[in-house]
Amino acid sequence: MSAQTQQIADHNPIVMKQRQAPLRTLYATDPGQAWITDSATTSSDDVDTAQAIHGQVVIGGDAPVRLDTGNHVAIGGDSDLPNPGEILAAALAVCFDSTIRIVANLMSVRLTHLKVSVDFRVDVRGTLMVDRSVPVGFQEADVCVHMSGDGANQAQLDMVLMAAEKCCVVMQTLRNPPALRVSRTASIN
Predict the structure, then answer these.
(1) Which of 99, 178, 104 is nearest to 148 (CA)?
(2) Of 12, 43, 66, 130, which is least surrounded by CB within 10 A?
(3) Within a 13 Å sphere around the CA of 52, how many CA atoms are in the beta-carbon half?
(4) DSSP β-bridge partners for residue 148
(5) What is the DSSP letter of 63?
(6) Among the listed residues 91, 92, 49, the one whose alpha carbon sits nearest the alpha carbon of residue 67
(7) CB–CB of 94/111 below 8 Å?
């Protein structure tokens, strides 16, 4: 456990109902306040454009984190750093984990163990244009949740999981993708 994670764990228990009540009121009376934007950025200011298999992404705006990235050996990379597919799997795992924790807290279910594993599978022939009939993108995803609760019965744990599936932003985004717009600016030196 990292020092920061241990510090968070040492705090008094958080009661999500108290934290969310004013937010629910605000968003009900002013829906425009409910819109947030999460961001990530890459730049050749950080990694030279001649570097084909490594990069860096800056995640977040309020408390930015730099993450060095690489590409998978299956497409010519070294698999020595997190690759985009692993980052996508991590986004789903951490979002579902935190959603389960929040829902359990709201339902007064004390979890004693929680583990979320995410596996995405892709046939890379599509992205390498080896076989044009193979789609580019992940074709399969598996999410496995192991959880137990102190004094919780199976029906309560099932309700937590079902509610978390409905509320997990990344999971619902993957199930119902948003419109994706790409804008370009180009200059010739």
Answers:
(1) 104
(2) 12
(3) 4
(4) 113
(5) S
(6) 91
(7) no
Q: Are 60 and 38 spatial neighbours (Cβ–Cβ below 8 Å)?
A: yes
Locate all alpha helices (DSSP H) within the chain, ordered by sequence.
3-10, 16-29, 84-106, 154-167, 169-175
pTM over the 0.85 mark: yes
The burial class, CB within 10 Å (0-12 / 13-18 / 19+), for 181 is exposed
Residues 122/130, Cβ–Cβ less than 8 Å = no
> 22: which DSSP letter?
H
Backbone Cα Rg of the chain: 20
The CA distance from 67 to 36, in Å, is 22
Q: Minimal CA–CA distance to 54: which of 44, 64, 65?
A: 44
